Amino acid sequence: MLNRARDHRLPDTEKRETRLAGKHIPYTLKRSKKRRHIGLRIDDHGLTVSVPLRTSEKWLRGVLQEKANWVIEKLDGWESKKIPRIVWQEGATIPFRGEKFILKLAPKKRGDRPRLHGETLLVPVGEDADDDRIEKAVKIWYKVEALRVFNECVEYFSPLMKVQPREIKLTSASTQWGNCTTNGVVRLNWQLVKVPLHLIDYVVVHELAHLVEMNHSTAFWQVVESVCPEYKQFRTELRDFGLAE
Q1: What sign for the dihedral angle of Cα 136, 141, 147, 153?
Q2: 12-46 pLDDT, tens per residue?
Q3: pLDDT higher than threshold 50 for residue 225
């Protein structure tokens, strides 16, 4: 019986690191039989390099070095526009509807909730509260405010679009700002309440449009455009905040 050579197949996806323009850059390498050229994409996951199945290391290194300045510029731009990670302590910056507020701890009072006061978010958890307690209180506030803001947007746009969702719910999805089910339930990511109001409006319009067209056809985008003429610009802006829509 003949011995068959083992099939040393390369992994389809691989985590790698490289040095570009003097900076240490991690990236994801994706191989595909269908590709004929090397492609670079930068999003909230960082740099992704898509290559043909049997791409040589020399070709890969050459393309990365050739595009080094572009990669650094795009990564820096993406990072500056992402929703910042919150440090759960006094003085932290709290984004809300595109504005920034300063977190200030207040004495704990029964039944008291976080509230905006000028440029400050007062969080009544006690001045010696730990990070977990502060985070829990602010996230509850975020979700209450998110549902209020989303419902206000829906109440405004529904009559204009002649649609009515069956229910508005919050979601914590890591890859979507929102979705709409075939039975009329619209789910919106609570973190959306951190971005500017015109982008919240766009996502609400986008999901309400699915009550008319459950797809992303030309007809769907016409519905979106009928009440949100600048949707293309807003869609691009939204991508800079780190979630896909």
Answers
A1: negative
A2: 889 999 999 888 999 999 999 889 999 999 876 78
A3: yes
pLDDT above 60: residue 1: no
Domain map of the chain by residue range?
13-81, 93-239
Helix (H, G, I), strand (E, B) or coil at 155: helix
Whole-number Cα distances in Å, 238 to 63, 66, 94, 110, 205: 29, 29, 18, 38, 14
- What is the reported pLDDT for 116? 96
CB 60 within 8 A of CB 51: yes
Which of 37, 38, 46 shows the shortest CA–CA distance to 74? 46
**Cα 23 from Cα 38, distance rounded (Å):** 21
Which strand ranges, in their side-by-side order, compose the sheet holding 46-52?
Answer: 13-20, 23-32, 46-52, 39-43
Best CA proximity match to 205, nearest among 167, 150, 242: 150
Query: What CATH number has the domain spanning 93-239?
Result: 3.30.2010.10
Report the distance separating Cα 87 and Cα 206, nearest Å: 32
